[in-house]
Amino acid sequence: MITLKQILNFYINSSIHVALSVFSLSYITLLEFNISYDKPVLYFIFYASITGYNFVKFFEVSKFEHRSLSTWLKLIQIFSLFCFVLMGYYALKLEKITVFYIAVFAVLTFLYTIPFIPKRKSFNNQSNLRNIGGLKVFLIALVWVGVTVFVPLLNNHFSIDREVVIVSAQRFLLVIMLMLPFEIRDLQFDSLKLYTIPQNLGVKRTKLLGIFLGILMFALECFMREVNINRVIALLIIIVLTVLLIWFSGEKQGRYYAAFWVEGIPILWLFLMLLAN
User: Fold this and answer.
1) How many structural domains does the chain have?
2) Residue 82 DSSP SS3
């Protein structure tokens, strides 16, 4: 009998949860710029997120253990294939400029996972972008900004102005903040050659960095042309919750602390935005 815990594990391990977070941030972008609900771009982003994240997570496992994959992993592979087909279906409904732009991030995802640098020439003897010291967090934040801010706007022919730049900067800071509990959790497992933020700053200073990024993210709101009190309140709630999750994170944390609660912050933000509207 399938238990609730097994369903939750599949929900997280198959990247549905993180895909909903990416979907939520993309939807928030539409709300922030008063753009109508764009089903093709939002659904594309959702299915592309599942496809991309599962490709990154399970590439090495599938490569070396394809003959002895566990049942749950085979199920995730089948699910990912289904999402890949749906991703292709919604890609056909996007604007051509959007598809071209998305291709850039597809290449980044590919290079993030697939070894392409000769080991004798690579930094720290690593062979893909994922393992280049100090790059991981910033690369992920950059991709999330590109997908959740610029893809929805480009598909709706929205011109890039000062407010788009401000929202992009806020989104970049938020993603880094959301990554910090994961970085702290993985401190005991990560190679020292990765030069992660907690490895460089230590756990306490990493948490202080999270607070600083939260303050900076909120301060950027002052530069928006129009101040929407409902938007500001929702933003403040999300920043405070994120900072608290960072502060109480540790190397030893519950299984779902980062993977569910931290990664669910964008979903809560979307709920607050929809409530405010």
Assistant:
1) 1
2) helix
